[in-house]
Specification:
The chain has 21 helices and 24 strands. It is an alpha+beta fold. About 17% of the residues have low confidence.
């Protein structure tokens, strides 16, 4: 007799169950995905004891007739694919036909289903893979499957189940993901009779996020949308102030299927680039629609991992849209209640504003008055829109601890009159603003035409892209504990972390400098000597070209020693050797091929941290002015290179509420 036998169907189902049914959440996943494929608009899940005693999934989908109900429990029985070609264009969540027989092999299953609203349905009972009953029954349209005593006939599997709370956590997490993947379906999850999850199913993804994570999270989410020829991306991402300790708040959905995709998560994080603190992660829900022929979902037993045919294009889309979405926001965390609540609770006294034309002399005087003058009682700083570059002039400016690198201090956006403001002032002043000029009398028609022309000039054209939010114009008040700058404007009170602010300024400066480091490298009269272990030296010898791209030139000096022959002259004075050693340490720690862009970024972060003003260091008002000017000119003035916030705000309303000025 031959040694090779055909496995019994029951044994084959139990083996398949080991791949498909790992724990109660696996059962929930398979049953709920079947309900989604059946076109359900409402899915109710009820579990007991973490799902080990009972898992019940009820839907209002298409249901099954009596013959299909029994056939569905055979291995590889499916209505979702019919030919080989269908495998390359899968549009459903399930397709292999292994879920129901695998579940039935290790539990007691009862299925009640009806294909229409006639009330006539079928009841099918199977235990441990053996059919116990099949009969007609009264049932509403849809399917109701109850799975009891999971792993009752496989005690070895049951022994490895975790606590009830752990298993419940896995079930809840997957229902969360499915609810976010399908906001058009109303989901309900109950455990031992207590409702844990309930979504409306009205198709609004933001409401689904609110139902799962809470309204405070939903208020801090930003819509994201973009597309290429092959992909369409939409969803929501959190503001950088809303973070988690792990990646659990990130949900990626491809064609309605929740997946785990590391490159996509990395592209998301790259889009946040320096906006997140170290080891913190955002909340995000990303939906991607694409041609199913460009994706292979049959690469993982649980279908949680997929393979893209044009993966780099998708990653570029995600990173670009996240960066652009965040770039359009003023990312200053509010230390007070959200604006929405402020608008709801604030009691506003309406005032009738009467307009009285000014005399020509008064208008001319107002036109010369710089906008944004400090509030009464505040120190009168030098005009920020014309602040001298640090080092120019005398006194505190010459001794500024953040002397501007070559190129001078950039002009502060928003420090001068806002964009378009001079034009508006000139248009509104007109001839009457010039002393001695006589106003020409206009007819009513001419007056209306002039008003319309002025309105068009003041109104932005629809085809122009919206201007990015400018960093707020701040009037410094002083310094708190030698660490925080206190400033104000008409919106409220602001606290600025002086070290984080200076670090951001220096980071952007050094990042640009490291873009062309070779041009600034200087040879040393007395080279620096660096010592390494034999293993480190061998590895470093292969990575010298990457260091040269950062402007640092090393050469072997025998044994495990190297000489530093040249480095960029703009490295922070006194910190050159320490910075080079840190750069080499990071370079040696990279296991994969070194990305010169990452080396450039790491080097810029190292330089910026060492060159920045520290906490508990007193600075003068002119230095504060210069710091705010240069911060406002940064590409991202809201977080330091490590992702910590630079500015927090206290709204005027919240301050007034603290002092009971508003009730």
């Amino acid at each position: 007799m031959g040694k090779i036998n055909i496995l019994d169907e029951h044994i084959a189902n139990q083996i398949a169950a080991g791949e498909v049914v790992e724990r109660p959440s696996s059962v929930v996943k398979e049953l709920v995905e079947n309900a989604i494929d059946a076109g359900s608009t409402r899915i109710d899940v009820a579990i007991e004891e973490g799902g080990l005693e009972l898992i019940r999934v009820t839907d209002n989908g298409s249901g099954m007739d009596p013959d299909d109900c029994e056939t569905a429990f055979f291995r590889h029985a499916t209505s979702k694919i019919a030919s080989t070609q269908d495998l390359f264009a899968i549009r459903t969540l399930g397709f292999r036909g292994e879920a129901l027989p695998s579940i039935a092999a290790v539990s007691k299953v009862e299925c009640l289903t009806a294909p229409d609203t006639s009330g006539l349905g079928c009841r099918f009972v199977i235990e441990g893979g053996t059919v116990r009953a099949k009969m007609e029954a009264t049932a509403p349209r849809g399917t109701d499957i109850a799975v009891r005593e999971l792993f009752y006939n496989t005690p070895a599997r049951l022994k490895y189940m975790k606590t009830i709370q752990t298993e419940l956590g896995h079930v809840t997490d997957y229902i969360y993901r499915l609810a976010l993947a399908h906001p058009g379906i109303a989901f309900t999850l109950k455990h031992n009779g207590h409702t844990l999850v309930q979504t409306l199913g009205n198709g609004d993804l933001l409401q689904a996020i609110a139902a799962i994570y809470g309204t405070s999270v939903a208020k801090n989410m930003l819509p994201i949308r973009g597309e290429t020829l092959d992909y369409r991306l939409d969803g929501y991402i959190a503001k950088p102030e809303l973070t988690r300790a792990n990646r659990g708040g990130i949900s990626t959905v491809i064609n309605g299927r929740y997946i785990r995709n590391y490159p996509m998560v990395q592209a998301l994080l790259q889009g946040y680039h320096t906006l997140l603190p170290i080891n913190r992660f955002p909340v995000a829900v990303l939906h991607v629609q694409m041609d199913p022929t460009l994706i292979d979902v049959n690469v993982h037993p649980a279908k949680l991992e997929v393979r893209f045919s044009k993966e780099p294009e998708l990653m570029q889309l995600v990173e670009r849209e996240v960066r652009e979405t965040l770039g359009k926001q003023r990312l200053i965390p509010a230390a007070s209640m959200p604006a929405a609540k402020r608008l709801q609770e604030a009691v506003v006294q309406e005032q009738l504003e009467l307009y009285r034309p000014q005399a020509p002399q008064a208008q001319a005087s107002a036109a010369r008055q710089p906008t944004g003058a400090p509030m009464p009682g505040a120190a009168a700083p030098a005009e920020r829109w014309s602040a001298p570059a640090p080092g120019a002039g005398t006194g505190a400016a010459s001794a500024s601890p953040w002397a501007q690198p070559p190129g001078g201090a950039p002009q502060r956006s928003g420090g001068a009159a806002g964009a378009g403001e001079p034009q508006l002032r000139a248009a509104s002043a007109g001839p009457a603003a010039q002393p001695g000029a006589e106003r020409e009398r206009l007819s009513p028609r001419e007056t209306a035409a002039a008003s319309e022309a002025l309105l068009r000039a003041m109104t932005p054209q629809a085809e122009e892209p919206p201007a990015l939010p400018a960093f707020p114009k701040l009037h410094p008040i002083g310094q708190l504990h030698g660490t925080y700058i206190v400033a104000q404007n008409e919106e409220g009170l602001f606290l600025i972390d002086q070290h984080a602010a200076h670090e951001r300024i220096n980071y952007e400066h050094y990042y640009d400098k490291f873009g062309n480091p070779a041009e600034a490298s200087q040879e040393l009269l007395v080279p620096l000597t660096l010592e390494f272990t034999a293993i480190e030296a061998a590895k470093l010898a292969d990575r010298l070209p990457q260091l040269e791209q950062a402007g640092v030139y090393l050469e072997p000096f025998g044994g495990a020693s190297f000489l530093v022959r040249a480095y960029p002259h703009w490295l922070p004075a006194g910190e050159e050797q320490a910075l080079i050693e840190e750069m080499i340490e990071w370079l040696l720690g990279e296991k994969k091929q070194v990305d010169i862009g990452k080396l450039r970024e790491k080097a810029a972060i190292m330089c910026s941290c060492k060159a920045s003003i520290k906490a508990n260091q007193s600075i003068g008002l002119l230095e504060i002015e210069t710091l705010l000017d240069r911060l406002a000119a940064c590409r991202n003035p809201y977080t330091c290179p490590h992702g910590r916030p630079i500015v927090v705000s206290f709204s005027t309303y919240e301050l007034e509420k603290m002092f009971k000025r508003v009730m």
